[in-house]
Amino acid sequence: MLGLFKREPLLDEDSIEWLFEAFGWSLRSFGSESFYQHTMLITPTPKHFPGSGTSIEEMANLMLNRVKAYSGLNHWPTRSMDHHQFNGNPEDTASIHQVLLAMAEDSSGNADLVDASQSYLTLFYEPKQVGSPEVMIANFAHALMVHLAALAELPPPCEEALLPHLTEVMAVAHGFGLMFANTATPYRGGGCGSCRSPAMERVGSLSEREVAYALAIFCKLKAIPEKEVTRHLKKSLKVFFKKAFVDVTDHSDALADLRAINTPSNVNKYN
What we know:
Elements: H1 13-30, H2 32-37, H3 56-71, E1 78-82, H4 96-107, E2 121-125, H5 133-149, H6 163-183, H7 208-222, H8 226-230, H9 235-250, H10 252-259, H11 267-270
Parallel strand pairs: 1-2
Helix pairs in contact: 1-6, 1-7, 1-10, 3-5, 5-6, 6-7, 7-9
């Protein structure tokens, strides 16, 4: 009889444990100091994304520059590009390691050794996503996190196949959880609901509930009230997030371990 009143877990315990572990890796790798002092809950509103452009390209650049600023990566040289206009293989574009190397060579006077294609990061966008800015913001944030993860000195707490999941947790830890939760695509069966344009969606690795749980961890660490999130969260996740907000507190040991992390801003992130 007592089992009838037992609360079902929001996620399986292994997934919750991994989300805490991934969050801790991000704090250790890129600085709990900057997390508590500078990182904010970024909302999909004009407050955090003001301004407008006269073209899709200008709008994409505005969003990218805002995302870079909130990530602490303003100094990274980047360019946004409509993926339809790229003639090569996206894998052929420069990595952050190549960009930093090119910048170092350039500043040392060896400009003739610098390949112009390696002097900036190229981040691609789908023009139709200007009409769905949360998707574009999340995609830009995730692309930056992928490059940032490559600079981490600590080994990732997962196998290679889970690196996309890890970098999504990184994005939540950098303040972009609302955009990731709102654009995570839940499973859809048949019917007209499965006919939406893929161009307007974000291809994510974490489920919408996993993202929402990671967002609850973020808010607990930053002492952000639940209502500050739910007012911007999509309707289908509001109830789950409220439960996750409580459940994170119930994982008191894991939460205490995260709060005990004390690391300065990683120099690789800001230089």
